[in-house]
Amino acid sequence: MSWRRWLSGFILAGCGETETPGYAPTTGAAASSTADASTTDPSTTDPSTTDPSTTDPNSAGDGDDSSTGAAQDTSGGAEAGTSTSTGAPTPVCGDGNLDPGEACDDGFAENAPDAECLHTCVAASCGDGYIHTGVEECDDANLDASDGCDDCARTRRVFVTSATYQGHQFEGLWGADQRCRSLAAQAGLPNFAGYMAWLSDSTTSPLERMHHGRGRYELVNGLLVAESWDALVAGELVNPISVTEKSETHDITVWTGTNPDGTAAVGSNHCLDWTSNDMVATEFWGVSTETTADWTLAAVDLNPMNCGAQIALYCFEQE
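Request: output the structure for the sequence above.
Response:
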């Protein structure tokens, strides 16, 4: 092809009338490719943003992660710090921790008005107004010994029966106990079902079968008999047991079969265990007007005597 023909084609193509074969125009798809190439050409790209060779994956990625993690740790630390800056969590009585100002704290399940540690986290003590189970019988929070509770021990009543009995009528100790309970109930005494007769048989005695109260033993009219069970069996009677369940004075002999220390007296057959009044059935007795050992075991030649005699019983309140 001559240069004239080529030039003619070029001129015509430039006027938009034709396209010279083999010539690549600068418009359309080709131009677009050129533009794309220029934007992705590594030589024209900011290496600080996309060039992997200038990006430290450890320093950049981990740095960002570490920064984020640090922020998270700082946030978590702030919460812990808030708790720490104000000390331990707010102390609560019952949380099981011995906090300042608490004498004890056994936890919500154990702190209670009847427990060793009160619900107020104060150690139980006599006079706090609460009854510590198994330790105190009562707690009226005062020092009045005559109000039924003394040194956190309950006062128990004692009386001599207004009725009299022959030995065989009881048909055993249980029958004597029942006489005491029946009379206490008729007199309207509290805890009437908790009375027992101060009486022994061939197998047991008051020392073995009765409650040993730490508190006072009083007559139904409030007069003191003994400061405690220990004082009673030591022979330290303050007043004689000469008042009945009706609060009436009754000077009389009383079936006991018992020594002053509460043990069974030896030398009788206890009315054949309280089932007989035959001539061979005998039992020991005491005198209701006495505060010496004679109150339960009269020191006279007629002791023991035949179970056909009609005499009284001593009755003691128990639990």
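Helices lie at 3-14, 28-40, 47-50, 57-85, 173-186, 206-209, 229-233, 270-274.
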